[in-house]
Amino acid sequence: MTIEQGAPETHPLDSIFYPKSVAVLGVTPTPDTVPNDIFRNILTSGYTGVLYPVAPFKRSIYAVKAYRYVLDIPDEVDQAVIVYPGNVCHKAVEQCGEKGVKSIIMISAGFREVGPEGVKREAKVKELCDQYGIKLIGPNCLGVINTDPTSMLNASFARQMPDQGRIAFLSQSGALCTAVLDYALEKGIGFSKFVSFGNKAGVTDIDLMRYLHKDPQTDVILVYLEELRDGRGLVEAAREITRGPGAKPILLIKSGRTSQGADAAASHTGSLAGEDVICDAVLKEAGIIRVDTIDELFNSAIMMTYQPPPKGRKVAIVTNAGGPGVMATDAAVNMGLEIPRFGEETTKKLKSALPAAANIKNPVDVIGDARADRYSAAIEAVLDDENVDQALVILTPQSMTDIEAIADCVVEGHKKTEKPLACSFMGGRDVQAGIDILQAARIPHYILPEWACKALLDSSSFNEWTNAPEPPLEPLPTDAGTVRAIINSAPKGYMSEDQCLAVLDAYGFPVPNHKLCKTAAEAADFASKLNGPAVLRIVSPDIVHKFDVKGVALNIDGPDAMTKAWDDMMTHIAGVMPNATIIGAIVRPMIPQGIEVILGAKRDNVFGPTIMFGLGGLFVEIFKDVTFALAPVTAQRAASMVRGVKAYEILAGARGAAAADVAGIEECIRRLGQLVADHPRIIELDINPLLVGPADVGNTVADIRIRLS
Prior knowledge:
Blueprint: H1 14-17, E1 21-25, H2 34-44, E2 50-54, E3 60-61, E4 64-65, E5 79-82, H3 89-99, E6 103-106, H4 116-132, E7 135-137, E8 143-146, E9 153-156, E10 164-171, H5 174-187, E11 191-196, H6 205-213, E12 220-225, H7 231-242, E13 250-254, H8 268-272, H9 275-285, E14 289-290, H10 294-306, E15 315-319, H11 322-335, H12 344-353, E16 364-365, H13 372-384, E17 390-395, H14 403-415, E18 421-425, H15 432-440, H16 449-467, H17 480-488, E19 493-494, H18 497-506, E20 515-517, H19 520-528, E21 534-539, E22 552-556, H20 559-576, E23 584-589, E24 595-604, E25 608-615, H21 620-623, E26 626-630, H22 635-643, H23 648-653, H24 662-678, E27 682-692, E28 699-701, E29 704-708
Parallel strand pairs: 1-2, 1-5, 5-6, 6-7, 10-11, 10-12, 12-13, 13-14, 15-16, 15-17, 17-18
Antiparallel strand pairs: 3-4, 8-9, 8-11, 19-29, 20-23, 21-22, 21-23, 24-25, 24-27, 25-26, 27-28, 27-29
Helix pairs in contact: 3-4, 6-7, 10-16, 11-16, 12-13, 13-14, 14-15, 17-18, 19-20, 22-24
């Protein structure tokens, strides 16, 4: 889009990044103030449109004619940057609406972040923007920067305009933005778009990500978030952005924690499913690469921006120091990269080019006295190897090391290949000249080899994700109508066990033969029809943890034993919980021993229904060996959940034991995903344990708890 030519907008958010005219509302002539800095930044950064200062009672700002109100400007205004105090911003927005302004960047603070009064002010601003169809960035933000030469918009109070680049950065924190801009300037990293979206009362992070997906100036999207409001929306957008033609990587830092409600601790799933744990799993499901630090964010970003995608995870390492080479190898393997063996031809090349003391296996050690010729031969040989997908070159500065010449040979070697290459020239001042050569040639450089390995891994992971087909969601046959009727008739809180079992039965879970009995005689009669020992389980809306009140009796053999067990249980419970309402007791056969696993579900405030799987029974809270996924769940995702726990080796048949019914577990996970997705009143569910037997025996639900909203 070229502003001078007046090209039509192709996207609703173009008015934010490519306005033909900008008015800054609330400008003052006082230097080193936010209103003044913003106006000066737009004026001096090469903006290609028309700029108007709105400064009541001022004739001009920096020799530019000033206006009292935006309505006084005689020409059209595409964008308004508002820096008035928060309590009068709504008046400015109303005038912008009357003027026909298309977008507003509201720098002003004093809104939702300050409490109830601020919430009301923000709601009023949003209402007016919606009424007039204005796209709003903010409030409480640093602003917007677009380095595209056709716009060159710096509508922010950042200290200076960043260099042009192919990386877009979105941040909820304005203060972080200033630090990131300074960091990037030192590292020589440029940006395509740079947005501080603040309270996101109007345009959201998801809206901006979708825009950047189509932005021809952007190759990689970086995001910093302090809160997630629409987790499902983020997942949907990310899957569109990170898969298929035109896919772009999203690298995200998510800070903060969400406190869990006290009642969540009554459930294993509720206590384990903290927002951050779910967030990790869900972001991975969406194809988003979550990182923890600014260094890690940009380490991976420059790899994906400057280098071609790798065809696989096989990395060749070339070094002049054995120790760093071994450390890099350990880091690569531990992260999930592969250190392949070289082909016969590569081995011959290395043997002829390197001294006898050199290590010609991977990692290749060209020895500490290596000059550029050895590095050149080794780099060319390993990059030509069919078993190598990408390479890492490590250098430590020795007295005879010609750092600049080696950097030049790295650049020349990289020109001859389409494989990605990363470097780690270890040190500081001594290697800086070589680093400058590498960075000028867009070869990513990392202070530590481990950082390079992580960037190579993230690039590999994204390439695998974006080229993988979207797994289909194939619903299983269920009786949703029966479950709907049961749930609709049930009150808020925990369902009775007979209701829970009926729900699972209708959705095809392996539920044992059972009966809700109201008397000892009824229980004894049903027990007499079972083939083997029976179990008696109390049913009461007031008793959640049955074992704590001796509300479970095991291995009851025959009608007489059942009658005694019934009488003993009811007498004991009457003594310890005299006010408990007793509905009856469930009688069912003893379930054969098996591996205990847990299947859980939780309706998360951000992500909606989520599913948990892990080692069950008493150990779930101790080991926390669990995996999570969004519901409903594809067959592929269910399989990865089961294989993602450390206890999978037990299920697969450790030390000669028979393999468990893993396929049955995966089917239960899929059925659970359908159940909680179909019925929004289910807010927590635990099947703990699901007793898992060998494949020829199958699995059985041993205990179930469902809580309704």
